[in-house]
Amino acid sequence: MTFKIGDRIKFLNDEGGGIIIAFLDNKTVEVQTDDGFEMPVLATEILFDSGTAYGFDGEEPRSAQQPKVEKVETASFIRTEDYKYQDYKGEILLGIVPDNDKLLHVSDFRLYLINDSNYSFHYIISQVDKGVHELVNEGTIESDSKIELKKYNQSSLSKITDFYVQGIFSKTGLFEPQKAFELTVSLEGISFYKSQHFTDNEYFDAKAILFKKDELLMKKAVEKLMASELIKVSKSKEESDKPVKAPKPVNPDIIEVDLHIEEIVDNHSGMSNGEIIEIQLGRFETSLETAMKSKAKKIVFIHGVGNGRLKQEIQKKLERKYPDLRFQDASFREYGFGATMVYLKQ
Question: Which of the four, 79, 81, 121, 227, has the lowest number of CB atoms within 10 Å?
């Protein structure tokens, strides 16, 4: 005979009975007794609980037959612990991990999705460049796990302004529906060349940058970082042999960005000139994109004099990639020959 979920049964060698609520394997079923308890029972020790001892058409008494359990395919197999109700607990995170945290200026970076919760998460993740979304990955990540989404080099990562995550939660069996998840991770103001942005964590052996939806401290840290490293609105010049001058008034219409390599990375010893230029141009482009979204009217890039190559490369980028922006040498009185001013708004 074949059992199925919902059948009313009685015990062969004991009093009482109950209802089959699950198949634990091909020989064992889960029974909810009349007293409300759940217990595993061998299929050979239960009988159908029917009003007569015989089946139709002269069938042998069911007690004389060898019980047979219907085989359940894996797709419909119910494991009792997974089926039971659980409140949602945990969080979803994005992580950026360097391949080489000792040489960040030449390292590639890997983007991870972390599901630190007890529910499965069905996700869609995109990257944003100039307001346009591009699909990074989509799928399902199980509870308490992480998945690598994509690998980036320095150049490609510097062009991305945001990562956008959206998705829904679920679990096998009984669960509490959650609101749709949405997270926007801004990369503006984050320097992937500086080691202090990467911290020890519980998810990776290497140091990483982690983004959490509910962590307001991250937002404050990013804003502070932008203020201290990207948007320098005041510049104080002191000379030991001259009286101290009053600080230059803050002008909200102008943003200053220092592209000297020592202002971007902790240690540039061992870098080639080409590597230094690439890092400086990455900072230039990220800062310009940030400024274009702000209320500022002008941005000044302080590049120094040197051999003039950085200035030339900046002007090439402006002419080719931003032909609508007007630029010129910044004020000689304030910056000498070492700065370029870009007009953001006419």
Answer: 81
**Rounded (5°) CA angle 126-179-96:** 35
Maximal CA-CA distance, the chain: 118
Q: What does the pLDDT look like over 174-189, one tens digit per residue?
A: 888 999 999 999 888 7
Asked if pLDDT for residue 73 goes beyond 80, the answer is no
Gap between the Cα atoms of 135 and 138, Å rounded = 8
Answer with the residue of higher pLDDT: 79 or 294. 294
At residue 64 the predicted structure's pLDDT band, cuts being 50, 70 and 90, is very low
Contact 111, 95 (CB under 8 A): yes
Average pLDDT of every residue of the chain: 80
Nearest to 282 by CA among 256, 320, 317: 317
Query: Given the structure tokens 């200026």, which residue do they identify?
Result: 105
- Could you identify the residue written with the tokens 């404050």? 220
**Residues in Cβ contact with 226 at an 8 Å cutoff, skipping those fewer than 6 apart:** 188, 189, 290
- Summarised one tens digit per residue, pLDDT across range 87-140 is 899 999 999 999 998 888 889 999 999 999 999 999 999 999 888 999 999 999
Residue 198 has a CB neighbour count (10 Å cut-off) of: 20
Other CB atoms within 10 Å distance of the CB of residue 263: 14
CATH number at residue 294: 3.30.1370.110
Domain residues for the domain of 167 are: 90-228
Choose one of 228, 259, 275: the last residue of a domain.
228
Q: Which residue has the tokens 């030449």?
A: 106
pTM confidence score: 0.47
Residue 69 and residue 171 in one domain: no
Q: What confidence category does residue 248 fall into, taking pLDDT thresholds of 50, 70 and 90?
A: low
DSSP class of residue 66 equals -
For residues 154 and 68, membership in a common domain is answered with no
Q: What are the residue ranges of helices labelled H in the chain?
A: 80-83, 154-158, 216-225, 273-292, 309-321, 332-335
Reduced to 3 states (helix: H, G, I; strand: E, B; else coil), residue 106 is helix
